[in-house]
Amino acid sequence: MMPSNPDPSQIIIGHLNHALPERVLFPFPFRLILLEGDPFQALLDGRVDALIIPGLDFPDRLPARLEVAALKTDTILPDLDATHPLHDKRVIVVQRDRADLKVLFAPMDIRQTYGKVYLTGAGAGDRDYLTLRADALLRNADVIFYDDLIDTRLLDFYTAEKIFVGKRKGRHHADQEAINRQLYLAALKKQVVVRLKGGDPLIFGRGGEELAYLLDRQIDVEVVAGVSAVQSAAASAGIPLTQRAVSGGVTLLSAHNALAGSTDPTLVYYMCASRLKELQNTLIEKGIDPQMPVALVFKAGFTDESVTLISIGTMHLQEHVSPLLAIIGRTASLYRSRPKILYLGTEACRCLLPGKIVPLISQKNQANSYNDIDLSLFSGIAFTTPEQVDSLLEIFPKISSRIVLYAYGKKTAEKLSKEGYTTTVQELNPQS
After folding, report:
1. Does the annotation mark 116 as catalytic?
2. Does domain 244-334 have CATH number 3.30.950.10?
3. What angle do CA 218, 222, 223 make, to 5 degrees?
């Protein structure tokens, strides 16, 4: 086991075959070692404290126990592939539970200057279909990029800058690559960016392309579901999409795809916790590749939601309890784990820390009392005032050393230090 609070002089940083002069890399003592074989396994095994990887060598997905601690601009290596999203960056990776190392590397993380993008569904129809979550985001947004197929009158209620990026067949105001880049550039300005799309952002709205583009560039993205056209149309017509003994499922299709040639669909199965083995047999009998990705989602939408990424071939090895939903198809492989941060302030929408921001008040609504909150679900806690330190420590006298304590303002950071928390405290600029 690695020590939980190492002296910086003991930090061992593994690298691939692209070594950099030590004085250029870090402002604290450390030791670089060249790694051969699987560098991530060396980190998981504890042979090194951290990895530094050229952006060109960064994988699409990290092992589950690892996390990006910092992103650095690279001015040493030549641009071997300038089209790569991280061609001019180096990535520092640590174990997910090493809060001390995440705090140590945080001051050099250029993501500290990034904003956040909320990929948000406006619902299908008039403003009444907008969710409370979407309304709160729009009220706190710095800029809104909106589509053609929404009720544009709803934008009059919000003060953010509005940029139209709508597309319809034969009338494209902006092509998709240009939209992707606009979102990216807006996020680089440390803004709250709302990408407002008609219906639900991940159903036939090309939201998945925008999500992938931004995540590839280490921009934090949160997807906010919306009422889709299929739900709105069925409800308006009084047509049940599923009904016992009549219809056991729904298939969503695009006529454009049907005319252009079919692609493999994404399959979604509800209520499958006790039926994974039978479901696996059914899928294989249908000729679906056993290597096809499967995302098992437990308690979707709740704070203790969890996602397990497997394949059809390993479904029989899984043991899960209800409620469980299975998403099966190539799109499941796009899943990226995000840390959860407990936020003690009042304006969670404007918290730009990377990850899913969970307001403390929402936990009170889901639990019987604050004492019932499970802090092990969170990788970070954000304090906006010194008083919040006292309040939380009254409920939880000891906070795990694997949790980063984000402190807005010097006084809040000092308060945490006086309570014995030093190596896991990251001071942030006070929120405006």
Report:
1. no
2. yes
3. 130
CA proximity to 6, closest of 95, 66, 70, 91 = 95
CATH architecture of the domain 8-112 equals 3-Layer(aba) Sandwich (3.40)
3-state helix, strand, coil in the chain (%, to 5): 35, 25, 45
147 is catalytic: yes
Given the residues 57, 88, 97, 167, the one annotated as active site = 167
pLDDT in tens, 330-360: 999 999 999 999 999 998 999 999 999 999 9
Q: What is the CATH number of domain 340-428?
A: 3.40.50.10090
Question: Would you list the domain boundaries of the chain?
Answer: 8-112, 116-230, 244-334, 340-428
Is the pLDDT at 5 greater than 70, yes or no? no
User: What pLDDT, in 10s, does the model give residues 237-269?
Assistant: 999 999 988 988 888 888 776 555 567 889 999
Residues 74, 109, 147, 200: which is the catalytic one? 147
CA distance 112 to 125: 37
